[in-house]
Amino acid sequence: MEEGGQYKSLPAVHKCIFFLLTMLGVLLQVIYATGNLPSPFVTNHNTAVMLIIDLFAYTAALATVMILPASNSTNMYELMNNISLLCGTLALVLLVLLLDPAFGWFTLACWVVYFVIIVTKSYQTLKTLSTDAVLYVRDKLKELKRRLNGSEEPQNQNGDA
């Protein structure tokens, strides 16, 4: 994996997402604590649940991104990084949707455009990974079929396993 380029600057993007999540989360607490508004779970239950699910997905994707640099799979690293960035920005959009619904719908529309751009750019990576996965599974199934039919030769000439 390269030391420079886009891989080196990614933690800065995630730090920015963390900062904005913290600020919007605090602002959400202030708005709902000072006003006579019911909880977001009461007023916007679906959005609040989607936010929680998205935060878990963001955490899982980000953890995977942090693990993958140890491997040599740059395609998988790029894909998981894109997924983590999409989940992180979606969490920001959902928080904005809870805070100010009108502006939230606008940011959601912008996020959908961003999503389409990322999916379009990641198409080749997704195609390569899915092709590799299908070939791997096909080879493993052929090997399993040979073993079940008993046609596999012993590991060495003495017949030892």
From TrEMBL:
Q: Where are the transmembrane segments?
A: 12-35, 47-67, 79-97, 103-120
Question: What InterPro entries would the database entry show?
Answer: Ca-permeable_cation_channel (IPR053258)
Superkingdom, taxonomy of origin: Eukaryota
Q: What keywords were assigned to this record? A: Membrane, Transmembrane, Transmembrane helix
Record's PANTHER family? Answer: PROTEIN, PUTATIVE-RELATED, RPB1A
**What protein am I looking at?**
PGG domain-containing protein
What is the organism field in this record?
Malus baccata
